[in-house]
Each structure stands twice: as structure tokens, then as C-alpha cells.
Design a protein that fits this description.
Order of helices and strands: HHEEHHHH
Radius of gyration: 15 Å
Shape: globular
Structural class: mainly alpha
Mean pLDDT: 84
Distance between the termini: 17 Å
Largest sheet: 2 strands, antiparallel
């Protein structure tokens, strides 16, 4: 569990870089391309988005990088695996734009489900294992935070800048 939003994103960038190499090695080109975008977005988000603040240029950069992700998904198209990687990357992009860690976690769960489907389709046992661990960690963090706020695990909107229960998402958080 990660203590801060920025740490979630920095670890996510490291995971995405590692997964990018893994996908390159197994020939999953769309996954590799999405991971490259994820590294940049994670680092930008960790540095320039926080509670109550977001630089004006961040949203256009994320919009442009999302268009690049969509274009690369089409350019490297290999069927459903590409679709899953592309949708997972777009959900993770939306997650990285969130200043609230709980909202970010919920979107990372959705993105991780897409990446799990991608990894199943490309035959990445390593990736699928990481996705299942990531989803488990995110759900635990969501439930713990929800227990503190009295709301349901997927509905809690507690602002988390210094809380303790946070899970990093690989490769999305790929």
C-alpha cells in the first residue's frame, strides 16, 4: 500500500517501463506503445497534479497523448488484444488526471481489468499475475478507505493525499 498519490504514480511509471520491455520482448507491440505513453503521463501527473491544483497545460497534454494512444492502437492493431490495451490505456489516462486518490484507484481497477484481458490474449502469464495482484491491492485500498468514510468501497470519495491505503497499478497505473 502506498502512502501518497505521487508515490503511486512514480511506482506506476516504473512498472509501465518494465512492462513496456516485457511486451516488446513477447511481440505485443500495442501494449509496448501504451506503456511508453503511460510512463510519460504518470510522471507528469505525479509532478503537476495535486489536491486543488493542476497546471493549465496538463489536460491538453493528456488529450494529445490520448490521441497518440488511440492512433498507436490503430497503427499496431492486432485484434482484441490491441483493443483491450487501448481502452486500458485511456482509462489509466483518465485515472492519472484525478487529484482524488480514491477516484484514481477506481479508474485504475477498470484499466487493470482491460490490461488483464490484454495479457490473457497475448499469453503473458507474468502480466496477468501482476494485474490480478494489482486489482486485489486496489480493491483492498478502496475498501479500507471506504470503511473510514462509512461509504461503500466503490463509492467513497475521500480525498487522499497522505492516507496509508493505496495500491500501485501495473502496467497502467499502465
Amino acid at each position: 500500500m502506498m502512502p501518497r498519490r505521487s508515490l503511486i504514480l512514480c511506482v506506476s511509471a516504473a512498472c509501465a517501463a518494465t512492462f513496456g520491455l516485457h511486451y516488446w520482448h513477447i511481440g505485443a507491440v500495442t501494449g509496448m506503445a501504451m506503456c511508453s505513453i503511460s510512463v510519460v503521463q504518470s510522471l507528469v501527473s505525479a509532478r503537476f497534479i495535486g489536491p486543488g491544483s493542476r497546471r493549465a497545460w496538463v489536460v491538453p497534454v493528456f488529450g494529445a497523448s490520448s490521441l497518440v494512444a488511440a492512433s498507436l492502437t490503430l497503427a499496431t492493431w492486432s485484434g482484441w488484444a490491441s483493443a483491450c490495451a487501448g481502452v486500458g490505456a485511456l482509462l489509466a489516462s483518465a485515472a492519472r488526471l484525478q487529484a482524488d486518490a480514491q477516484t484514481m484507484r477506481r479508474l485504475f481497477v477498470a484499466a487493470s481489468l482491460c490490461w488483464a484481458a490484454h495479457n490473457l490474449l497475448v499469453g503473458s502469464v507474468f502480466g496477468l499475475t501482476c494485474d490480478l495482484l494489482t486489482i486485489s491491492g486496489l480493491v483492498v485500498a478502496l475498501r479500507r478507505r471506504a470503511g473510514r468514510t462509512g461509504a461503500g468501497p466503490l463509492r467513497a470519495k475521500a480525498a487522499d493525499t497522505g492516507g496509508r491505503e493505496v495500491a500501485a497499478s501495473c502496467p497502467v497505473a499502465a
